[in-house]
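User: Sequence in, structure out. Go.
Assistant: Echoing your sequence, followed by the structure tokens.
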Amino acid sequence: MSEKKGKIFVISSPSGGGKSTIVRKILSEFPEIVFSVSATTRPKRPDEIDGVHYFFLTENHFLDKIKNDEFIEWERFYDYYYGTLKTFVIDYIKNGKSVLLEIDVKGALSVKKNFSDAVLIFIDVPSFEELVIRLKKRKTESQADLQKRIDRAKMELSYKDKFDYIFVNKDLEEVTSQIKSLIREILKKGEIV
């Protein structure tokens, strides 16, 4: 077992902020960082693998885990529960592996309460109008669901000042490079900056 404890990195942004793409690019460059697989009650999509994309749980199983305090953070989001299992994260960081979580802002702040040395990174958008354009271009939701995402984005943006670092995603390659540099610096120092 390694004596060096791993780091916890949390990346959040509103839908359309680019966090999923940025997270994929970070993980491809840092094989020593483990992606935190969240648990959810939403149905598994045909291309998803249990334990890789999510841990798919029944609602009763998820609620049992809440009662047993098995989550670092959890939330009901668009009719389903999502959460980060304590054992998943703690086992890796105790063994010297760093973990990257891609979660919503409230979840990120819950992680910070439990792990004060977690590094919270917020991906901001150039403007709210730009975010709405990005969400509309995706054409993945009904008008009602789109409006829910827009309303939720307003709430998420109101929390950004509680994060350790804020990066504005004007240019995807540039912002990804900046975040990679930050992570590299933190990992090299072996301490939170």
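User: And one key feature?
Assistant: DSSP finds seven helices and nine strands in the chain.
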